[in-house]
Design a protein that fits this description.
about 425 residues, nine-stranded antiparallel β-sheet, UbiD C-terminal domain-like, binds manganese (II) ion, Pnp Oxidase, Chain A, 13 helices, 2 domains, alpha+beta
Length: about 425
């Protein structure tokens, strides 16, 4: 399997010593379109790389595709998964005693502390098999971490164990090829194997090596592996934490990981992933686009789907369709919300609009949309818990904007062209 190193293309190298407390996140946010390598980090012997995915096109290149074909590539990969393979080696030769020796960043002023943001958590369940998922994790002390568990697969594994008063073994793999991060962010409805999707996307199977203190396997290309267990019956305060919108998420009581071993590769690089950065937004948002496409395809001829960066790659969707009837845009709006429940605003445009260019989408709203006729409003519905303007429990108002041209009136909407001049 491809490694982080295979993908890394450094644009900027920082040789001066930098602090993982605010300094690295500040430099990364200032240079958000540049991959930065920090060679000397205060308090750690590991190097740090950040902004590893600087654009949609870089993300697509990691998945062996382009922005135009991305949705289809994911759809095809889901149909032809490529199983991970076990390998007989121990790639992590060096051990580290304390979490404090890792260059884990403190990102924003009011964050509760240093957060691991690019770790993929691996766990296994007797019934459902392996799971890989990304969680924010707050360092509590030398060997304890608070983990935010939303009620999805890892939460289900943990709850089952906790009911028997048992701990859930986990391993956190840090420093992976983006295809593994993408697949781990993908929201499967059932307990599908994330790594088989990663393999299909990357075009080669993920290889798995044995952990040392827990009965789990993780990608052999990981730079760093933190092993441990989520303790039963333990909760601690987790948050505030700056999430995808760049605003602070609230404090909650969350489960606690007890760390049993930390191993690293020789010359390991720690990948920094700054919350609300372009990289965070692409990694979290892009895996939702195929499911929006899938839902809208049931009711319309979809050309493409994007969660726009201006909408935090989470709250705003643009969908281009080849319109066949006047009912289609409204149906497309409802389907798009079904495809991504956290989305708050969706704009449906004709296929002559480039949805990757927000100015073109705004042009369509400016010249093809009348609110009394084309706005579809849904009051008091469940939206994103990350939107600070939502009412309690993520209750929100959603708007679908139909910015398509009426059929049969193409002439009125024709984009004016300048003819060739004959000399
Ligand atoms: Mn899963």
């Amino acid at each position: 399997m491809k490694s982080l190193g295979d993908f890394l293309e450094v644009d900027l190298t920082v040789d001066d010593e930098v602090s993982p407390e605010f300094e690295i996140s500040k430099i990364l946010m200032e240079h958000y379109r540049k991959t930065v390598l920090f060679n000397r980090v205060k308090g750690s012997r590991l190097r740090v790389a950040g902004n590893i995915i600087t654009s949609r096109d870089r993300m697509c290149s990691a998945l062996c595709t382009t922005r135009e074909k991305f949705v289809m590539k994911v759809t095809e990969s889901l149909k032809s998964p490529l199983e991970a393979e076990d390998v007989n080696k121990t790639p992590w030769q060096e051990e580290i005693k304390s979490l404090r020796e890792l260059p884990i960043l403190r990102h924003f002023e009011r964050d509760a502390g240093a957060y691991i943001t690019s770790g993929v958590v691996f766990a296994r369940d007797e019934e459902h098999g392996r799971n890989a998922s990304i969680h924010r994790m707050l360092v509590i002390d030398d060997n304890h971490i608070a983990i935010r568990l939303v009620e999805r697969h890892l939460h289900a594994f943990y709850t089952k164990k906790e009911e028997k008063n048992e701990a859930l073994e986990i391993a956190i793999a840090i420093g992976l090829h983006p295809s593994v991060l993408f697949a781990s962010s993908y929201s499967f409805n059932s307990f599908e194997d994330e790594l088989a999707l990663a393999g299909a996307l990357a075009g080669e199977p993920v290889t798995l090596a044995k952990c040392k203190s827990v009965d789990l396997r993780v990608p052999s290309e990981a730079e760093i592996v933190i092993e441990g267990k989520i303790l039963p019956g333990e909760r601690t305060e987790e948050g505030p934490f700056t999430d995808i919108t760049g605003t602070y998420d609230i404090v909650r009581k969350q489960p606690v990981i007890e760390v049993t071993k930390i191993s690293v590769k020789r010359d390991a690089i720690y990948p920094a992933l700054v919350p609300s950065s372009v990289e965070h937004r692409l990694l979290m948002g892009m895996p939702r686009e195929p499911s929006i496409y899938h839902e809208v395809s049931k009711v319309a001829d979809v050309k493409n789907v994007v969660l726009s960066e201006g909408g935090c790659s989470w709250l705003h969707g643009f969908v281009s369709i080849k319109k066949r009837s006047e009912d289609e845009p409204e149906e497309a709006i409802e389907a798009a919300f079904k495809g991504h429940r956290s989305m708050k605003h969706v704009v449906i445009v004709d296929d002559d609009i480039d949805i990757f260019n927000p100015e073109e989408v705004e042009f369509a709203i400016a010249t093809r949309f009348q609110a009394h006729r084309d706005a579809h409003i849904f009051r008091n519905v469940k939206g994103s818990s990350l939107d600070p303007s939502a009412e309690r429990s993520a209750i929100t108002t959603k708007i679908g904007i139909d910015a398509t041209k009426p059929l049969g009136k193409e002439e009125e909407y024709e984009k004016a062209r300048i003819p060739e001049v004959n000399k």
